[in-house]
TrEMBL record:
CDD domains documented for this protein: Sigma70_r4
Pfam families tied to this protein: Sigma70_r2, Sigma70_r4_2
Protein name listed in UniProt: RNA polymerase sigma factor
PROSITE patterns (UniProt xref): SIGMA70_ECF
GO MF: DNA binding; sigma factor activity
Domain RNA polymerase sigma factor 70 region 4 type: from-to ranges: 119-165
Domain RNA polymerase sigma-70 region, residue spans: 21-88
SUPFAM superfamilies: Sigma2 domain of RNA polymerase sigma factors (SSF88946), Sigma3 and sigma4 domains of RNA polymerase sigma factors (SSF88659)
Family to which this protein belongs: Belongs to the sigma-70 factor family. ECF subfamily.
Length: 194
């Protein structure tokens, strides 16, 4: 099949067409992302995000348009969003360090920390069991995607998709708990790789 036929099949939910497009573009997208991020794991995550977005929007992908230009535009948008988020996280991290130094011994801070810790645990507890285990291994135990995949007998891509979906759920869950004034710190904790 040529690229246009693959996109037409993708529109209809054909997983083999999706796999063919993944095989065709994943390496090129990875190199494109790596040029900016200089990180294998982060580049892999962006590529995974691109293909998740393509799959979720498969019915809307226009087979008449240049798919190559389209998929690289999706990658560019995700990269820009990611780099902006990283910049905001660095600022939040510096602010957190400053606040920690200034207010380290206040009992009120210990209470907030306790609430944050409980909220994290509640959110993670709501994930499906398998996804919860993968997320804990990644964010709490600091294991890489490859280590998790090896230990659980899964593909690295399955681990990446699981973590991506977990983060999406946790963002939504945490956004609904605005009673805690410093919930942005919690988001920082969840997004920064260990």
């Amino acid at each position: 099949m040529n690229e246009k036929q693959l996109v037409i099949s993708l529109n209809q939910g054909d997983e083999s067409a999706f796999q063919s497009l993944f095989d065709l573009y994943s390496s090129r997208l990875y190199l494109y992302c790596f040029r900016f991020l200089k990180s294998k794991d982060l580049s892999d995550e962006i590529v995974q995000g691109v293909f998740i977005k393509i799959w979720e929007q498969r019915a809307n992908v226009n087979p008449e348009f240049n798919f190559s230009a389209f998929i690289f535009k999706v990658a560019k948008n995700l990269l820009v969003d990611f780099l902006r988020k990283m910049s905001r996280e660095e600022e939040a991290k510096m602010e957190l360090q400053l606040k920690t130094q200034l207010y380290q011994s206040l009992p009120e801070d210990e209470m907030i920390y306790s609430e944050l810790k409980k909220l994290i645990e509640d959110a993670v507890h709501k994930l499906p069991e398998k996804r919860q285990r993968i997320f804990r291994m990644s964010r709490f135990e600091g294991l890489s995607h490859e280590e998790i995949a090896r230990q659980l007998g899964l593909s690295k891509n399955t681990v990446k998709v699981s973590i991506f979906k977990s983060l999406c759920f946790l963002r939504e869950y945490l956004a609904s708990h605005d009673k805690i004034k410093v919930s942005y710190l919690l988001l920082l904790f969840l997004m920064v790789r260990k």
